[in-house]
Amino acid sequence: MSGNDGPACRFDTFFRCYPAGVLGRGELNYSGIIILPPSALGKLTRLRIAYPMVLELHNVPRQKMTQAGVLEFVAEAKRVYLPYWMMRTLYLKAGELVQIKSTAIPSGSFIKLQPESTSFITAISDPKGVLENALRRFLTLTKGDKFQFLYKGNIFEIAVLDVKPQHQSGGISCLDTDLEVDFAPPLDYVEPPTSLLGGGGVKPFIQESFMAKRIGYDALAATPPSAAGPVISTAKPQPLRLPLGTLFFGYPIEPMKAGSDKAEEKKPSMFSSPGGKTLGDTTNRKRKHKDITGKETKSD
User: Fold this and answer.
1) 121 with 115: CB under 8 angstroms?
2) Is 62 a residue whose pLDDT tops 90?
3) Residue ranges with strand state E in the chain
4) How far, in Å, CA of 200 to CA of 202, rounded?
5) Pairing label, strands 154-164, 33-35
6) Domain residue limits, the chain
7) Where in the numbering of this chain does the Ubiquitin fusion degradation protein UFD1 N-terminal subdomain domain appear (predicted)?
8) Dihedral in degrees, nearest 10, Cα atoms 159, 164, 167, 169
9) Which of 221, 264, 280, 281 would staple 246 via disulfide (CB 3.0–4.6 Å)?
10) DSSP one-letter code for 177
C-alpha cells in the first residue's frame, strides 16, 4: 500500500510499523518520538506543518490511538519506526499498518501517572526528579498511554491516567511547559497493616458475640497493654462479717480423720472452740434455758 493522503492542510498517510530496535535505535524505546521516511518530510513541509510536529497514530481496526513527535526522517520508504511501548499501546505487530495524521494539541498543565510496580518507589530515591528528566524525551503524552523509561539499567513502566487541559484527542504537549505531576499508588501496591502505620496493636481476629458487644470487647482488645510497673494496691481491709453473737478466734488447723467410723460424727464448725462447741451455741443455750426456768441455770 503506497499511502493515502487525507484532506488538504493535514498530513494523513498509512505506513507499515516496526519497532525501533529493528533499526538499531533501541534507545528510542524509552521516548515518545518516531522515525519517518524522507517522503513524509516533503509532505509535511508542503502542508506547512509547524514545528515541533505532533502526529496522531491510529490502529484503525482496533480503534486505538496515541500521539508522538518526530525525531528523524531516515526510515525506508513507506515505513515508520516506533518505540516498543507505543506498539503495545496501539496493539500493533511488526509489519502492520498504522495511520499517521498531523494534529495540534495544547500545552499541558497537569498529568496524573501510575507506576506499574512499587519498585518505582523503592529503587529510585528521587522519583519525581528522575521522571522529570525522563519526560524530556517525550514531546507529548496521551491519556491511556503506558510508556517506559530506563534508569540505572532497569525499565520502569508508567500509565497515564489523566491530563489537563482536556482535549478531544486526550493528549498534551510536554515541551517547554510547567507541568504539575501527580502520582497514583503503584498498581501492585498493598496497604501495610495498621500496626505498621500507627504503631497500634493488631486487632485479634475474633468474631464479636453478643456478650462481647455487651462488655465492649472490641474497645478492650484494641487497647495496647501498658508497660509493667510496681503494683500498688489502694484497697482497704474489709471487716469480717459474722452472725450476731458469734466471736472469731482464728481458723483452727484440724488433721484429717482416718476411717469411715468417724463419718457420722458432727463436723466441727470453723468457729468451734477446742471442746467442739461454738461460743454462739453456748450463749444461745443459756438464753433458752433462762427463758424456760425463769432463772439462769448452768448448763452442761
Assistant:
1) yes
2) yes
3) 12-19, 33-35, 54-59, 64-72, 79-82, 97-103, 110-115, 140-142, 146-151, 154-164, 171-173, 180-183
4) 7
5) unpaired
6) 12-103, 110-183
7) 11-106, 108-186
8) -10
9) 280
10) -
Rg, Å, the chain Cα set = 46
Distance set, CA 56 to CA 5, 83, 100, 128 (Å): 14, 14, 5, 27
* Distance separating alpha carbons of residues 11 and 217, to the nearest angstrom: 72
| Residue 263 grid cell | 463419718
Q: C-alpha distances in angstroms, 234 versus 70, 197, 213, 230? A: 84, 38, 30, 13
pLDDT per position as a tens digit, 236-270:
666 667 666 666 666 666 666 665 555 555 555 44
Pairing type for strands 64-72 and 33-35 reads: parallel
> Parallel, antiparallel, or unpaired: how do β-strands 79-82 and 110-115 relate?
unpaired
DSSP H or E run through 92? none
Sign of the Cα torsion 85, 90, 91, 94 reads negative
CATH level 3 topology of 110-183: Vcp-like ATPase; Chain A, domain 2 (3.10.330)
Per CATH, is 12-103 categorized as 2.40.40.50?
yes
